[in-house]
């Protein structure tokens, strides 16, 4: 049994009368890709926002390596090693691809307040940014402004920025959305490499991709967990088939 | 061009007292003080993306410290103690106000900065501190002495002028350093996408508070010398008109590169001077000019060259 890194216990989040996430328990383990699927409005993004500290749960707890996490503060959680990407590309549009990654890497560095040191000459964050761009295959596009990148490239940059912070847990919110088939394949290959030494939570709509890379799949519907287990178990689950109303998975 | 123009401008500034009369030397000294003030606001508005409409509070508070630090209005204050005191007071006020207002965003941020600065305004307007609504005259300028030797005589307009030129250059150089540092890059990241900065692990609140405090301290530096030059302080120096004027200077010149703040301060005050000598309805002319700049040069006066090139050669790939 692999060691759980991020654990959610009975998480519930209400928005007024709507229960977006309903009593969800989840374990994301080291060295595993844990896919989270479900129809639109199932509560997947809310769950990611809870895990990333963007939202505070109405009830329930989240623990990182066994230690319960304090109240939701995204920057604290990121410092503890929980990195995330966003469903819609959320990059620094007026920065170059390299600068996006360098700024991301800088989040970890001490001496942030050393005003006399030039950020552009910082060797540590520069090296981390170079590594992150290379990992997603964007090395040649480092000088291009993020807003000038193609949609697929921006999705890759989104992942590179997260990698530049060297997280131990990756929360990926639909990284493949809108990507060309070729780019998707490249990202899936990257995810397979990344899971060594990391825990990955992958929210994704592309079922072929999910079943191709996931070690564990959790299916959500109406905010609650419908099924959870190996791809094979989930594929054969009757409840899951009903939730997708005949969509073959 | 980009390198030559600032150098020429610097040479012209250095030579001004040799070729122009006292009136212009004093006018340009005043403009340079306002340029330092405008640069401090640019750190918030242009660099970090925090549009503050209460920046005069920190400027004006430091002005009042000049008056309050002097034993009486006929005795000079000591520069070496009163200047650090003024800057510290402004920084402290900025820290306290910033800690509260930075919990808001967008238009609410504009409103609460305005509200807090008006509170400071009314403290000086409605109480006897610093002479109430009339303000106070300072008959003696602070003394900058090393032992018995006077380093600079602020009563001499040429010496004061060169002190302000030095202050402008130092402030500019310091803020350029800040912008190029990791701290400055983080502030630019916050302007671009604060949510992403937090998700990456930046405590954006702490960064913004540090920027707000630093900007307040530099505004205090400007406010101190404004009081020294004018020889009086009154509540107008921390009113919202003052906050709006300095915001206009930054917008006129162009946001985020500090040059804009300096160019904006020169343009604003020189035009104010020109228009008010033409007609008593000069505010109409000023308003018209601001509207023209915003319409024709959305990047401000310092980006006029870029605007001209795009106008000459419209982008065809759009």
Descriptive account of the structure:
The complex is a heterodimer of chains A (249) and B (318). Chain A has 249 residues and is α/β, with parallel strands linked by helices. Chain A folds into two domains: 1-81 and 167-249, Rossmann fold; 94-164, no CATH class. Chain A is built from nine helices and ten strands. In chain A, a hairpin with a 2-residue loop joins strand 1 (4-15) and strand 2. The radius of gyration of chain A is 18 Å and the shape is globular. The relative contact order of chain B is 0.18. The model of chain B has no long low-confidence stretch (mean pLDDT 92). Chain B is globular. In chain B, the strands form two sheets. Chain B has a two-stranded antiparallel sheet. Chain B has helices at 4-19, 22-48, 56-69, 79-101, 106-126, 157-180, 182-200, 204-230, 240-253, 259-278, 282-296, 304-312, and strands at 136-137, 144-146, 149-152, 232-233. By secondary structure, chain B is mainly α. Chain B has a domain at 22-238. The interface between A and B is medium-sized, with 38 and 24 residues.
- Supply the CATH superfamily name of the largest domain in chain A: P-loop containing nucleotide triphosphate hydrolases
Distance between the termini of chain B: 28 Å
Q: Please state the overall shape of chain B, judged from the principal axes of the Cα atoms.
A: globular
Number of domains of chain A: 2
Biggest β-sheet strands, sense, barrel of chain B: 2 strands, antiparallel
Write down the overall geometry of chain A.
globular
The rounded distance between the terminal residues' Cα atoms of chain A is: 27 Å
Strand order of the largest sheet of chain B: 1-4
Runs of chain B in which pLDDT lies below 50 for 5 or more consecutive residues are none
Question: How many strands of chain A?
Answer: 10
- Work out the helix count of chain A: 9
Q: What is the succession of H and E elements of chain B?
A: HHHHHEEEHHHEHHHH
């Amino acid at each position: 049994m692999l060691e759980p890194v991020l654990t959610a216990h009975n998480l519930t989040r209400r928005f007024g009368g709507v229960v977006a996430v309903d009593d969800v328990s989840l374990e994301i383990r080291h060295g595993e890709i844990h896919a989270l699927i479900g129809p639109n409005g199932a509560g997947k993004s809310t769950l990611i926002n809870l895990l990333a500290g963007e939202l505070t749960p109405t009830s329930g707890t989240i623990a990182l390596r066994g230690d319960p996490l304090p109240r939701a503060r995204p920057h604290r959680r990121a410092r503890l090693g929980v990195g995330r990407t966003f469903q819609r590309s959320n990059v620094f549009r007026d920065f170059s691809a390299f600068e996006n990654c360098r700024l991301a890497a800088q989040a970890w560095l001490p001496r942030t307040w050393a005003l006399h040191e030039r950020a552009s000459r910082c060797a540590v964050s520069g090296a981390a940014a170079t590594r992150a761009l290379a990992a997603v295959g964007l090395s040649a596009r480092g000088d291009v402004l993020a807003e000038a990148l193609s949609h697929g490239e921006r999705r890759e940059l989104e992942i590179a920025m997260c990698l530049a912070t060297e997280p131990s847990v990756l929360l990926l919110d639909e990284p493949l959305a809108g990507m060309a088939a070729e780019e998707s394949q490249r990202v899936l290959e990257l995810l397979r490499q990344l899971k060594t030494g990391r825990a990955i939570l992958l929210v994704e709509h592309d079922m072929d991709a999910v079943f191709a890379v996931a070690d564990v799949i959790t299916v959500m519907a109406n905010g609650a967990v419908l099924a959870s287990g190996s791809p094979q178990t989930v594929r054969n689950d009757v409840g899951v088939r009903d939730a997708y109303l005949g969509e073959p998975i | 061009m980009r390198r030559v123009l600032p150098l020429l401008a610097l040479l012209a500034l250095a030579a001004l007292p040799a070729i122009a009369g006292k009136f212009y030397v004093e006018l340009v000294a005043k403009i340079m003080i306002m340029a330092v003030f405008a640069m401090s606001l640019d750190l918030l508005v242009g660099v970090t993306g925090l549009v503050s409409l209460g920046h005069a509070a920190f400027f004006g508070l430091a002005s009042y410290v000049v008056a309050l630090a002097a034993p009486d209005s006929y005795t000079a204050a000591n520069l070496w103690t009163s200047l650090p005191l003024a800057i510290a007071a402004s920084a402290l006020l900025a820290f306290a106000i910033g800690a509260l207002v930075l919990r808001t965003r967008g238009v609410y941020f504009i409103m609460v900065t305005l509200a807090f600065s008006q509170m400071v305004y009314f403290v000086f307007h409605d109480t006897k501190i610093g002479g109430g609504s009339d303000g106070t005259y300072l008959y003696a300028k602070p003394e900058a002495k090393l032992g018995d030797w006077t380093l600079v005589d602020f009563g001499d307009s040429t010496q004061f002028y060169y002190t302000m030129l030095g202050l402008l250059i130092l402030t500019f150089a310091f803020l350029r350093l800040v912008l190029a540092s990791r701290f400055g890059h983080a502030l630019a990241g916050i302007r671009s996408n604060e949510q992403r900065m937090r998700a990456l692990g930046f405590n954006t609140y702490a960064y913004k508070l540090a920027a707000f405090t630093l900007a307040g301290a530099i505004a205090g530096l400007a406010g101190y010398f404004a009081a020294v030059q004018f020889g009086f302080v009154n509540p107008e120096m921390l009113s919202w008109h003052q906050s709006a004027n300095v915001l206009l200077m930054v917008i006129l010149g162009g946001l985020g590169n500090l040059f804009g703040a300096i160019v904006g301060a020169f343009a604003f005050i020189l035009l104010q001077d020109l228009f008010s000598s033409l007609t008593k309805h000069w505010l109409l002319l000023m308003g018209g000019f601001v509207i023209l700049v915003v319409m024709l040069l959305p990047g401000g006066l310092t980006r006029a060259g870029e605007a001209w090139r795009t106008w000459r050669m419209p982008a065809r790939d759009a």
